[in-house]
Each structure stands twice: as structure tokens, then as C-alpha cells.
Design goal:
This protein is α/β, with parallel strands linked by helices. It is about 45% helix and about 15% strand. Strands 4-10-9-8-7-5-6 form a 7-stranded mixed β-sheet, sandwiched between helices. A 4-stranded mixed β-sheet has the order 1-2-3-13. The protein has a 4-stranded antiparallel β-sheet with strand order 11-12-15-14, with helices on one face. Strand 2 (about 45) and strand 3 (about 50-55) form a beta hairpin. Bound molecules: pyridoxal-5'-phosphate (PLP). The site of pyridoxal-5'-phosphate (PLP) has 16 residues, from helix 6. This is Aspartate aminotransferase family protein.
Length: about 450
């Protein structure tokens, strides 16, 4: 490691050997990667010793904050006792058994069975296979279409990127896109026109159901959506959207897949985002907050009515991952759930730090650059815009979001830019003082961005 004792040498070696996800390598190598070396609580430290408030909880995942020894100890204990065994072919082990039991206590009452995966992407792939299997067992093999939404992110495997609604991912070769439809998203600021948010929410729900009716509801296996669209820009739906849409899906026999990879484990102020919006999904995708990102892990939650059919009549489900129910990942998840529960972290998001940060965050709407400032639980966005009154966006080529993101980083704050929408999703253990720090830094960063725009 003596070679790696300076930021420069780390950057050079990173550029030589590491292909990064979602990164333009030539742009990265021109500048060099940001190198994060330590973290504690809600703060990161980079290789130059700068301390940065992590407004994104890593990648929306470090719910309990960094540096919790309980997780490290639980994983170390498990690695000593049973570092690996698989869960294929009628075998199991205590940590995976305990984790399933604990999850059934925190998920909605009708979700009691879990299939374990290595990530959110392969959890979604698992659902696409399981739902098709379910409909075949039910004697409706024509129900194969998955309806998703434009601008949604559901992962990076071939199936998950096809189901997701990012045009730039579809544009890259190698993606067979079949049996997938993309419905509109309830993005009022950008697409609501003259309608009120509530009327727009109803319109998007109606348009989604019309899309399903157009292809024939009897051909649709499921509708996948996040309760709040996260990586697509933290699109918080109008209150009218979910009740109208979920009632229409139920009428048509279309199953709801709630992708809880970001919204799960307290992010929206309930254990799961579907509870915040009152929907009853048949499948739930989980990852990120399941282990707070300390060890990779995903899971699929399956409703009783689906699980009962599959366990009674489904035969062998020919699907699985070497690391399905990895003992060390289970140990991390168990310890993480223990912290979330014993410290009342989900209630704290609902009743204390959530409302506290929301109040301060929404006040950012007074900044001349900000068109809207929204937040539910501890997930929020500010929309940068050229004209607030007219809801007019900046010219995309200006790259205002990226400009703002760079100012944020240089000023000790991680915010993510989705186009010109700045999003945050801090660790759920954020203190009031850290919430103040986050918003003060965001103001400063907005001022700097405005000054740069001239
Ligand atoms: N689903 C959603 C909603 C996500 O935000 C993500 C990742 O950001 C995924 C699925 C994919 O999860 P992973 O990166 O663990 O494969």
C-alpha cells in the first residue's frame, strides 16, 4: 500500500485499473476520482482530509449512518462461525431464518415470505421471473407484460434496465426490450402544465390505466413503481395519484410491485413507502436500507396470496443466486434492523427529524434559483429553474445541476444532480444540528451557482 499514499497516486492507479459504474471514463480521468477514505455518522472524509456532509447516505442506503460497530461485530462473528453456505436445494442456516422472521415483523402484515438476492437489480429480476411463474401457475400465461414508468430506475441488469425508464440506458446497445410498457410519471413541476397537482395526479393515474387497457389488462402481469421515484429525481406524487392508480390496478387484476429499494426501511417516515401511500403491493423490492449498505444484499417480499399459490402449486422455482441469503449479509441486516428498531429511527423520521428538516428544506423555495423544494420523510429535491413563476427549466446544455453539484462538493456537501433537480436522502440518524448544516450549505451552494450563472 505504500504506492497508495497520496491522492495523486490513488487517482493514477484508479484511472489505470478501475472501470466505474455510471461514469464517463475520459471525463473522470481528466480530473481524477474523488477518493473517500473514512466516514463516521453522517460525515465523509476524503483523501485530502476534507470533511463532507453526506446528504445522500452513500447511494441512498446508509440509513443508520457510518461507523456503527454493532454491524462490524455481527458480521465478524458470523464470518468466524459460518462465512458461507448456500440456501439452494433444501438447505438453510440460522441467520437467514432469523432475518426472514424479523422482516415479517416490519413489512406490511400481508408480506411474510422473502427471497434473498445480492442487490436491488437482481431482486427486481427475481420478481419479473416470479410473477410470470405465478401467472402461469394461475392458468393465465398471457399475463407477461410489465408496466413501468418513464424516468424510473429499477437497476442495471439487462431486465432491470429495460424495465426502467431511463432513455439514456435504453439508448446503449445490448438491451432486448420486450413486453414492457412505460407509463407517464407524476412529475407535476415539469409536466403538470396548467393543472393543479391533484388534478395532474389523477390524470397520470388515468393515463396509466388507459395504457394498460389499451394493451389489454389480461396481458399485464404487474405494474412496478417506487412509492416516491428516487433516482428519477425524487418525484413526490400528488396525494391523488396512488389511491386512484392502485384502485384501478386492483380492478384490473394487475399486481403492484412496490420497488422499496430507496423508500424502504424508514426513508419516507414509515417502514415502507407503500405504507406512507396506503398501497398493498404483491411484491416488494428491498435492498440498500436492508443492511444500510454495510454489506450488499437485496430481498423480494412476497404477499401471502402469491406465496401460498407458489408454495402449494409452483413446483421448483428455477432461479437463485450463489449469495441468496449470504450469512454475513444476513448478520448485517439483522444488526441493522435491530438498530432501526431499538433506536426508534423510523418513528423519529416521522415525528422529529423528518418534519424538522422538511421545514427548513421547503424554505429553500425562496431562493431565486429554486422552482420547488419538496421533501417527504428524509427524501427531498429542489428544482433549479430559469423562471420560477413560469416553471421554465434551464437550457439543458448549461448543465446547471452539475454546476451546483460541484459547488456542493467543494463546500462540504454531497447532493446529487438529476438534470437540474438537486436531490438529498441523508442518513436517517441526522441530528438537528446536522440538518441545519445541510440546509445552510445548500443555501450557500445555490448562491454560488447563481453567481456563476451571472
Ligand atoms: N430499484 C431502485 C428504486 C433503485 O434506486 C436501485 C438502485 O439505486 C435499484 C433498484 C437497483 O439496486 P442495486 O443498485 O442494489 O442493484
Amino acid at each position: 500500500m505504500t504506492l497508495l499514499n497520496s491522492t495523486e497516486s490513488l487517482r493514477a492507479m484508479d484511472a489505470a485499473h478501475h472501470l466505474h459504474p455510471f461514469t464517463d471514463a475520459s471525463a473522470l480521468n481528466a480530473k481524477g476520482a474523488r477518493i473517500i477514505t473514512h466516514a463516521d455518522g453522517v460525515h465523509l472524509t476524503d483523501s485530502d482530509g476534507n470533511r463532507i456532509l453526506d446528504g445522500m447516505a452513500g447511494l441512498w442506503c446508509v440509513a443508520i449512518g457510518y461507523g456503527r460497530p454493532e454491524i462490524a461485530d455481527a458480521v465478524a462473528r458470523q464470518l468466524r462461525q459460518l462465512p458461507f453456505y448456500n440456501t439452494f436445494f433444501q438447505t438453510s442456516h440460522p441467520p437467514v431464518i432469523e432475518l426472514g422472521h424479523l422482516l415479517s415483523q416490519v413489512t406490511p402484515d400481508h408480506i411474510n415470505r422473502f427471497f434473498f438476492t445480492g442487490s436491488g437489480s437482481d431482486a427486481n429480476d427475481t420478481i419479473f421471473r416470479m410473477i410470470a411463474h405465478y401467472w402461469a401457475v394461475m392458468g393465465q400465461p398471457d399475463r407477461t407484460i410489465i408496466v413501468s414508468r418513464q424516468g424510473a430506475y429499477h437497476g442495471s441488469t439487462v431486465a432491470a434496465s429495460a424495465v426502467g425508464g431511463f432513455g439514456f440506458m435504453h439508448a446503449q446497445p445490448g438491451l432486448p426490450v420486450g413486453n414492457i410498457l412505460h407509463a407517464p410519471r407524476p412529475a407535476w413541476w415539469a409536466e403538470g402544465g396548467e393543472l393543479s397537482p391533484e388534478d395532474f395526479g389523477l390524470k397520470v393515474a388515468r393515463d396509466t390505466l388507459a395504457l394498460i387497457d389499451g394493451i389489454g389488462a389480461h396481458r399485464v402481469a404487474g405494474f412496478i413503481a417506487e412509492p416516491i421515484m428516487g433516482a428519477g429525481g425524487v418525484i413526490i406524487p400528488p396525494d391523488s395519484y396512488w389511491p386512484a392508480l392502485s384502485a384501478g390496478l386492483t380492478e384490473r387484476g394487475v399486481m403492484l410491485i412496490s420497488d422499496e429499494v430507496i423508500c424502504g426501511f424508514g426513508r419516507t417516515g414509515s417502514w415502507f413507502g407503500c405504507q406512507t401511500y396506503g398501497t398493498t403491493p404483491d411484491f416488494m423490492t428491498m435492498a440498500k436500507g436492508l443492511t444500510s449498505g454495510y454489506i450488499p444484499m437485496g430481498a423480494v417480499g412476497v404477499s401471502d396470496r402469491v406465496a401460498e399459490v407458489l408454495t402449494a402449486k409452483g413446483g421448483e422455482f428455477a432461479h437463485g443466486y450463489t449469495y441468496s441469503g449470504h450469512p454475513a449479509a444476513c448478520a448485517a441486516a439483522i444488526a441493522n434492523l435491530g438498530i432501526l428498531r431499538s433506536e426508534g429511527i423510523v418513528d423519529r423520521v416521522a415525528d422529529d427529524i423528518g418534519p424538522y428538516l422538511q421545514g427548513k428544506w421547503r424554505a429553500l423555495a425562496d431562493h431565486p434559483l429554486v422552482g420547488e423544494a419538496v421533501m417527504t420523510g428524509l427524501i427531498g429535491a429542489i428544482q433549479l429553474c430559469a423562471d420560477k413563476g413560469a416553471r421554465r427549466a434551464f437550457d439543458e446544455d448549461l448543465g446547471v445541476g452539475m454546476m451546483c453539484r460541484e459547488h456542493a462538493f467543494a463546500n462540504g456537501l454531497i447532493m446529487r444532480a438529476v438534470g437540474d433537480r438537486m436531490v438529498v436522502s441523508p442518513p436517517l440518524v441526522l441530528t438537528h444540528a446536522e440538518a441545519d448544516e445541510l440546509v445552510e450549505k445548500a443555501w450557500r451552494v445555490l448562491d454560488l451557482t447563481q453567481a456563476q450563472l451571472g
